[in-house]
Amino acid sequence: QMDEAEIDVVSGRLAPTNGTCMVMGTASTMACVSEALGITLPGTGSIPATHADRLRAAEASGARAVAMAKSGGPKPSEILTQKAFDNALTVLQAIGGSTNGLVHLSALAGRLGIEIDFDAFDQLGRTVPTLIDLKPSGAHYMEHFHWAGGVPKLLKELGDLIDGTALTVTGEPLSAAIAKAEEVPNQTIIRTRANPLQASGAMAVLYGNLAPRGAIIKQSAASPALMQHEGRAVVFDSVEDMTNRMDDPALDVTADDILVLRNAGPIGAPGMPEAGYLPIPRKLAQQGVKDMVRISDARMSGTAFGTIVLHIAPEAAIGGPLGLVRNGDRIKLDVANRSINLLVEDAELEARRKTYQPP
Question: Are residues 211 and 328 in the same domain?
Fold first, then answer.
């Protein structure tokens, strides 16, 4: 239980003033990732919104943009190369970044004819540790990350995991920004690779008969006890269905079940709303349940914590297997083995597929 005064304290820390979320939400993620890409000035990705340095950064950015226009470069296509995206994806894993960051990077890369290899991204999740002790994966806030040295210090700690030869908007390689990284004595927000927040990166890519083309889980902000879990499916056919039934006292659900939301992807919703952070059913929340396995073809806010599988592909609305799940089916999640499977015989799934009509 929290009283109004405690809620005010929490609200004041999460949203103390103007600007983006003070945790590693999607906006903060993209600010850090943009700096790693080389398309923003070094050290600007984490400046608090009301700090005078934010205005100075805006002026410096404008001046640099004019200088680039006059000199004819460097051009965006010269900065946004494969190695720049590799650096950005590495940072996305290391900061405990938002799953939306992967969506945005994929879209940007696609416009340049660069393909994001999700298997390679998953491999980064196995080799790149989470180094930033920041909510929702850790304990601190964006301003603490900034005063600890921000993205330049993080890049320095990542060492040989970063390609310092990548060109940046300054006209210099990324290594120049890394060389100028501030050393802040006794800071504990940006961990070393020898003492990471977590040995693995932010995200893992899952496959299985429920996600033949893949799914994403933000493992850095999930409950370790649920990373390998088998449970009974409790299915919601749409965001509206979920809204109408989730808090019904008569809902047949236990803490060991797996909540399933479908038809919430780009086509099904339509528009892929931030619905993947399914709430804990009220009757379970009242019992003290804080997390459950939740799966969907939707996306979610980068601020969220929970054992949540997102972007299941293909989505249900275009005939994906998520549409074949029925209440009571068993589902098995195994993050270590990168799998998510519906424990139903192939023959039964084929029979369901013949009669299934996407909405």
Answer: yes
Core vs surface per residue 28-59: b (16+ CB within 10 A) or e: bbbbbbbbbbbbbbbbbbbbbeeeeeeeebee
Same domain, 239 and 162: no
Work out how many domains the chain is built from and give that number: 2
Give a yes or no: residue 193 inside a domain: no
| Structural domain containing residue 160 | 4-179
pLDDT digits (tens, 9 = 90+) for 32-59: 999 999 999 999 999 999 999 999 999 9
Neighbour-count burial of 159, counting CB atoms closer than 10 A to its CB (0-12 exposed, 13-18 middle, 19+ buried): exposed
- pLDDT of 14 > 80? The answer is no
Tell me the per-residue pLDDT of 230-274, one tens digit each, with 9 for 90 and over: 999 999 999 999 999 999 999 999 999 999 999 999 999 999 999
For the residues of 58-120, what is the DSSP string, one character each?
A: HHHHHHHHHHHHHHT-S-HHHHS-HHHHHHHHHHHHHTT--THHHHHHHHHHHHTT----HHH
Quote the tokens at residue 62.
């404008």
Residue 197: inside a domain: no
Q: What was the pLDDT predicted at 231?
A: 98
Q: What angle do CA 127, 276, 338 make, to 5 degrees?
A: 30
**Residue 56 within a domain:** yes
Catalytic choice (61, 106, 238, 301): 301
Angle at 58 between CA 52 and CA 60, to 5 degrees: 105
Answer yes or no: do 88 and 163 share one domain: yes
Number of helical H runs and strand E runs in the chain? 13, 8
Which tens digit of pLDDT belongs to each residue from 102-123?
999 999 999 999 999 999 999 9
Task: Report the pLDDT value the prediction gives residue 328, as an integer from 0 to 100.
Answer: 98
- Which residue from 20, 3, 17 is spatially nearest to 303, judged by alpha carbons? 20
Q: Is residue 143 part of a domain?
A: yes
Q: How many CB atoms lie within 10 A of CB 156?
A: 20
- Same domain? For 287 and 150 the reply is no
Would you state the structure tokens that stand for residue 318, as one six-digit string? 């275009």
- Cα(140)–Cα(65) distance, integer angstroms: 33
What are 98's two structure tokens?
């938002």
Active site residue 339: no
> Cβ distance 326 to 260 under 8 Å?
no
